[in-house]
UniProtKB/TrEMBL annotation:
Classification of source organism: Bacteria, environmental samples
Keyword Zinc-finger recorded: no
Gene3D superfamilies reported for this sequence: Naphthalene 1,2-dioxygenase Alpha Subunit, Chain A, domain 1
Gene Ontology MF annotations: 2 iron, 2 sulfur cluster binding; dioxygenase activity
Domain of life, source organism: Bacteria
The name this protein goes by in its record: Benzoate-1,2-dioxygenase large subunit
Amino acid sequence: SNAGKLLAVKDPRGAGYPESFNKNGSHDLTRVARFESYRGFLFGSLNHDVLPLREHLGEAAKIIDMIVDQSPEGLEVLRGSSTYVYDGNWKLQTENGADGYHVTAV
């Protein structure tokens, strides 16, 4: 559903969901209370009572600016994927790739 209503879950009988699961829409998506964008990056908050995005970003906006300003055309999202083999604990690699200085930029 485009309204955020949970329509189904995989294997509802065998996955161990309690009888009370998703009663009265308890697991439906919540509408984003506040949504703003900055330089092509999208930010959403479930809380209405938050600072305006630019104020919240503060000095972090400079990092976004540096990333976007690497190209005269600004931010461009490219199709495709980047794959490689990592011979180690997957959790370490996932954490390593989630930090801000491993953002892929062209």
